[in-house]
Design goal:
Strand content of chain B: 5-15%
Number of helices of chain A: 2
Number of domains of chain A: 1
Distance between the termini of chain B: 80 Å
CATH architecture of chain A: 2-Layer Sandwich
CATH superfamily of chain A: Ribulose bisphosphate carboxylase, small subunit
Shape of chain A: globular
Strand order of the largest sheet of chain A: 2-1-3-4
Number of helices of chain B: 14
Oligomer: heterodimer
Helix content of chain B: 40-55%
Distance between the termini of chain A: 19 Å
Strand content of chain A: 25-35%
Radius of gyration of chain B: 24 Å
Shape of chain B: globular
CATH class of chain A: Alpha Beta
Chain lengths: 113, 304
């Protein structure tokens, strides 16, 4: 079952070039980017594991792309998402969040009602 | 191979369209002396422009290695030139963002095991797309302490310098002799740095010109007598210990402004003109410690 969570999740997976362009857009807006990963994509699981600290004060996407690739290499069978946090007063919340890595085989999850 | 008719290539247009010209002219105008440095900067700019032209003809262009080492005595303009270099590389399209991240050992090396690598990587990430300026780089390596974490930072640095050459330019800076010793104990680092640039000391005339430029920037001017006093001051200060070239001049001018202000404050009953506010008089300079026990000096009032 293909997980649909976050922005762009109904589109085909973004290529690295597209991810990079999205990161550039985030950085232009002054948002801080962080990476999170999990093996349990259940919607109730709101807290994914952080991968490293959130990255503040970055100017260029190259550093974040490197981090994304390290995370993918470390957890090839986890979901990895990239979050962009806007610290502007009155907003102070995530502005963009999308999946940048998914396991080859997605088992999905069960919903017990 | 058939020889196709080559259209003439227009390096001049490329030069004009990139912002290199302004950057180079600003370098000439705003930095006094430093002839070898300017020559090398111009050479690098020329190389990058020609590479751009070559790539437009689909000729082989290896991304040139632009990591640099600036060595020279204190106050010879290493940081200032690094800042200019970032802007220049941005104009040439080599550095995507053209910002400068200035760090020292403390920003790169951690306090305990496992602290160094994330710290160094974070700094490197911040510098991506621009220039990483490591001041007093020789402090990174402390050969006398075998458990020093500096070596770890150097190894990460080397890896990124080699693999992500298009993403950032690393500039190491420091005093000449210590830099040489640092490179001798880190041959891997020395061989990965293409440009070793030496910053010469300034001559007295150059220091005088620097002082004028600084005063112009601060909207002050020297009275003719003060010009003479400044010239004498520079000659004396150069012979004294802890002379830091342009930095000493800046400090001297700051102190002269202080004395100028307190002199004006002392006669606050009388009317002041615009001239008074912008003109430094010889006594502002001659009250300096440098002139103590010198024929041209003024007696120093206590506490000043």
């Amino acid at each position: 079952m293909r997980l649909t969570q976050g922005t762009f999740s109904f589109l085909p997976d973004l290529t690295d070039g597209q991810i990079r362009a999205q990161i550039e857009y985030c950085l232009q807006n002054g948002w801080a980017i962080s990476l999170e990963h999990t093996d349990d994509p259940h919607p109730r699981n709101a807290y994914w594991e952080m991968f490293g600290m959130p990255m503040f004060d970055l100017k260029d996407a190259a550093g974040i792309m490197a981090e994304v690739n390290i995370c993918r290499k470390t957890f090839p069978n986890h979901y990895v998402k990239l979050n962009a946090f806007d610290s502007a007063p009155g907003r102070e919340s995530l502005r963009l969040s999308f999946i940048v890595n998914r396991p080859a085989k997605e088992p999905g999850f069960g919903l017990a009602r | 191979m058939s020889a196709p008719e080559n259209p003439p290539l227009d390096l001049e247009t490329l030069y004009r369209d990139s912002h290199v010209r302004e950057a180079l002219e600003a370098l000439d105008r705003e930095l006094v002396g430093l002839a070898p440095v300017k020559t090398r900067v111009r050479e690098i700019a020329a190389l990058l422009l020609v590479e751009k032209l070559r790539s437009s003809l689909a000729l082989e262009t290896g991304a040139p290695s632009l990591h640099m080492c600036f060595s020279g005595n204190p106050g010879t303009g290493k940081t200032t030139v690094a800042m200019r270099m970032a802007a220049l590389l941005h104009g040439l399209g080599y550095a995507r963002k053209g910002h400068l991240v200035a760090v020292t050992r403390d920003d790169l090396v951690g306090q305990y095991i496992g602290h160094t690598a994330p710290r160094t990587r974070e700094v490197l990430k911040r510098a991506m797309g621009g220039v990483l300026f490591i001041d007093e780089a020789y402090y990174l390596c402390r050969p006398e302490n075998e458990r020093d974490y500096g070596q770890e930072a150097i190894e990460i640095l080397l890896q990124v310098m080699e693999n992500q050459r298009d993403d950032l330019v690393v500039i190491l800076a420091g005093y000449k002799d210590r830099m040489d010793r640092f490179f001798a104990s880190n041959p891997g680092l020395a061989s990965r740095i293409a440009h070793h640039i030496d910053f010469p000391d300034y001559t007295p005339e150059e220091l005088h010109a620097i002082a004028r430029l600084m005063l112009e920037g601060m909207q002050y001017r020297l009275s003719p007598d003060a010009e003479v006093a400044l010239r004498e001051y520079i000659a004396l200060r150069r012979t004294q210990p802890h002379f830091a070239n342009a930095r000493s001049i800046r400090n001297a001018l700051d102190r002269a402004r202080l004395r100028h202000a307190s002199r004006l404050f002392g006669r606050r009953g009388t009317g002041l003109t615009r001239e008074d506010l912008i003109t430094l008089e010889p006594e502002d300079i001659r009250a300096s410690r440098v002139f103590r026990n010198q024929p041209g000096g003024l007696p120093r009032e206590p506490g000043a």
